[in-house]
Write a structure and sequence with these properties.
The chain is α+β, with helices and mostly antiparallel strands. The protein has helices spanning 2-19, 163-168, 179-196; strands at 24-28, 32-33, 38-46, 53-61, 71-77, 94-96, 104-110, 125-133, 141-145, 151-153, 172-177. The protein has one domain: Immunoglobulin-like. The longest helix is centred in the N-terminal third of the chain and has 18 residues, at 2-19.
Length: 200
């Protein structure tokens, strides 16, 4: 009997800890990009309780390229499956890329009524985004959340549970040029340097 009571108590403690875990925002991106091509990233949100609306902003940065020219956000779309608000119905997914600041993007949406809990593999996807790269881009692109513009609200307009912890642990991800692309660029530069050398 004591063993059964202990097992039930341990299970309840585990479930209580699971229920109070902080929500997590994450970015899924390819490990490499091909300069001159676009690539897609996906933003997901797991463990959010009583979510009624969101506004999520991301930024792109790179030390070797020019923002808006060599890299920029091109578009965003609502995921066709596993969307955070699929179960409750939504008023309309929208995105904004500020003119002259194409290295920034904001996506937002809100429920008609009620709230949802986001569950991994069920309704955990916030947005799909497309990133443009120029043929001359050579460095790693860093994709980050902008915590100062982040909103994850409950039905009363306040922050969802665990919001502060989520903001304190926002991740970023880096996408590097494909190794083959770098090798070709290096080879091209080497040939160019060789041709520019004066004949002896």
């Amino acid at each position: 009997m004591f063993r059964t009571v202990g097992l039930v108590a341990a299970t309840l403690c585990f479930l209580a800890g699971y229920a109070s875990a902080s929500p997590i925002l994450s970015i899924t991106a390819p490990s490499a990009y091909t300069p001159g091509n676009t690539f897609d990233i996906t933003v997901s949100l797991t463990g959010a309780q009583e979510l009624a609306s969101y506004s999520v902003s991301l930024t792109l940065s790179d030390s070797n390229g020019t923002a808006g020219t060599d890299f920029r956000f091109q578009s965003a779309s609502q995921p066709s499956s596993r969307y955070v608000f699929t179960a409750g119905g939504n008023d309309g997914f929208a995105y904004n890329i500020p003119t002259g600041q194409e290295y920034e993007i904001t996506v937002d949406d809100l429920l008609n009524s009620g709230t949802v809990n986001t569950v991994a593999g069920v309704n955990d996807l916030v947005a799909n985004m497309t990133v443009y790269t120029s043929t001359s881009l050579q460095g790693s692109l860093v994709i980050s959340f902008d915590g100062t513009k982040l909103e994850l609200d409950n039905a009363s307009g306040g922050d969802i549970a665990g919001f502060s912890e989520l903001v304190a642990n926002l991740p970023e991800t880096a996408v590097a040029p494909e190794p083959a692309t770098l090798a070709l660029l290096s080879m091209g530069l080497g040939l160019l340097m060789r041709r520019r050398r004066p004949a002896r």
